[in-house]
Amino acid sequence: MSFRAALVLSMLAGGVATAEKAPAHHGKSVELTVPGGKTSTAYVARPKGQPHGGLLVLHEWWGLNDWVKSEADRWAAQGYLVLAPDLFGGTVTTDADEAQKLFSALDAKAATEVEVAGVEWLARALPGKKIAALGWSMGGGQSLNASLASPGKVAGTVMYYGLPVTDANVLKKLQGPVLGIWAKRDGWITPEKVAAFDLALNDASIKHEFRSYDADHAFANPAGGRYNAGAAQDANEAARRFLKSVLK
Fold first, then answer.
1. Residue 242 sits in which domain range?
2. What are phi and psi of 166, to 5 degrees?
3. Predicted confidence (pLDDT) per residue in 133-161, tens digit
4. Predicted TM-score of the model (pTM)
């Protein structure tokens, strides 16, 4: 079985994302400029006071949905200027088959351009402040991708069960630590893949912290079929401490 097939089976097994009501959003949409004179929409959430730093938030394969926007608002309430790019051009779904098609059709180069534009937007908005990247599942891998694409501007990376990179030479580009949040029963990002990532980060001399839970893929999303409240709460607290340390 191919890696992509294993990924799809793992994510499909998580069931359909429910359309449960999310809290009212406090942010707004902004347009990012990407190469070729094109634009890409993103969601921005602002803190009440001066931001402690910037946070680039990358969505799952369901798209930039209400849950991701509420997470952006939650992080903004903790003092960060949060930007959540839309990698699917406005498409949002709760259907796993459609999500798989969106994921399969994602253009890696275009996604990277949007992420770089997002980091640039945060850097312009926060001169002298640090920026981190955070994402879940597909977005977890994209958070690492964003950090690798803008290494001099991203101070830390949070990956919730996202696709690792195991080439130490590539990982040496990182300019900050990594927090990896993993699920021991994950059929996509297996414990073996996590161990290989750990080894590669060590070889690249990249500081990192890994936390693994007795849970399954996508356990932090309350709208999914694999939500684990205890694991999600602990993981979110670990992310809070990590970002507070990295963005101080």
1. 3-16+25-246
2. -115, 15
3. 999 999 999 999 999 999 999 999 999 99
4. 0.93
